[in-house]
Amino acid sequence: MKVSNLFGTAPVTLGGVHIARSTGGASIDASTDTVLRFNGQESVTVPVGQESWSDETRFSLPSQTDVAVTVYVPQTTPVATVHSQGQQTISIAAGNALGSATFTPTETRQSYYWVTGIDVSNDDARGVIVAFGDSITDGALSTVDATNRYPDFLARRVAADPELKGFSVVNQGIGGNRVLNDVIGTRAVDRFQRDVLDTTGATHAIILIGINDIGFGAFAPEQAVTADEIIAGLQTMVDQAKAHNVAVFLGTLLPFKGTFPPYYSEETEAKRQAVNAWIRANTAQVKGIIDFDAATRDPADPLQMRPEYDSGDHLHPNDAGYEAMANAIDLALFR
């Protein structure tokens, strides 16, 4: 398991980290509770800007199993490396609950702290599909605790396909992320190496990002970017993936008419159309194109999302929309 202090401002000490199979909420199957050690120690101090991996641990983890990670933090940490839009409830309580079958939380949140990855050893492993993007990949506004982000639906489809035995799906979406500007999270062109190419076993990457560069750029002139600049950023990531023998897929940007102005305007729509036109015209450069735009747009008004797929903000899909996105991916692309 990887714990991170990449964005902290002081060293962070984790007094203990346990993993177990989750039984829901703040409860675990205590018979599966397993202590994670770091260089043989139960506690670990991660320096500012660094990450630490736990020692290899024997822990049975069947496909599609929910795990619970319990972390004991013995002292206040000023700023944490955090996944702010987890769409999954975490439970917080004072004291040390390591090894407890259940505890009563004093607070719940939907943000993950410090834990940024779990590597699993699998004798049948054949490939890892990394979904890379912004809040739409992250699953914003999907039902909390339902595991209904588009990469979740894709993972279930992959797991059910006998021809894809040994494949897994990793979600590397960050809500608010952009291709070219560091605003929420490191910009995509700079984090692509860490979050995709350095993912253990990565063989395929689905890139779906750019809408925040278009929309939020309308609020701040100094952050405004052109369609050509977004395209250049996407091209950079495509080239990096190919150089590392990672098969890369580009996803078209979803319709967003009706989103709050000036995020949506005729000008921002024109940029989306230009980016999508470039994606559709460059099939020879990539392993494939995934037309998320076509899968989610309203036939009666192709500039907006189908009402039955709209979460309500006209930018993010709901659960049905995320499922439609996953269903738009031809699994033959990975065989």
Order of helices and strands: EEEEEEEEEEEEEEHHEHEHHEHEHEEH
Architecture per CATH nomenclature, i.e. the level-2 architecture of the largest domain: 3-Layer(aba) Sandwich
Tell me the name of the CATH homologous superfamily of the largest domain.
SGNH hydrolase
Number of beta strands: 20
Ranges where pLDDT stays below 50 over 5 or more residues in a row are none
The helix tally amounts to 8
Question: What strand line-up does the widest sheet have?
Answer: 15-14-16-17-18
Total domain modules: 2
User: What percentage of amino acids are in beta strands?
Assistant: 15-25%
CATH topology of the largest domain: Rossmann fold
Radius of gyration: 20 Å
Helix content: 10-25%
What shape does the CA trace take? Answer: globular
CATH class of the largest domain, named Alpha Beta
- Mean pLDDT over the residues: 97
Major sheet attributes: 5 strands, parallel
Structural class: alpha+beta
Termini, distance in Å?
28 Å
Write up what this structure looks like.
With 335 residues, this protein is α+β, with helices and mostly antiparallel strands. The protein has 2 domains: 2-117, no CATH class; 127-334, Rossmann fold (3-Layer(aba) Sandwich), CATH 3.40.50. It is built from 8 helices and 20 strands. The protein has helices at residues 135-138, 150-160, 188-197, 211-216, 227-243, 266-281, 292-296, 319-327, and strands spanning 2-4, 12-14, 16-24, 27-28, 34-36, 44-46, 51-53, 67-72, 82-83, 90-92, 107-109, 112-113, 115-117, 127-133, 167-173, 202-208, 247-251, 288-290, 297-298, 301-305. It has a 5-stranded parallel beta sheet, with helices on both faces. Strands 3, 4, 5 and 8 form a 4-stranded antiparallel beta sheet that branches. A 3-stranded antiparallel beta sheet has the order 7-1-13, with no helix packed on it. Helix 2 crosses helix 8 (319-327), helix 3 (188-197) runs parallel beside helix 5 and helix 5 runs parallel beside helix 6 (266-281).
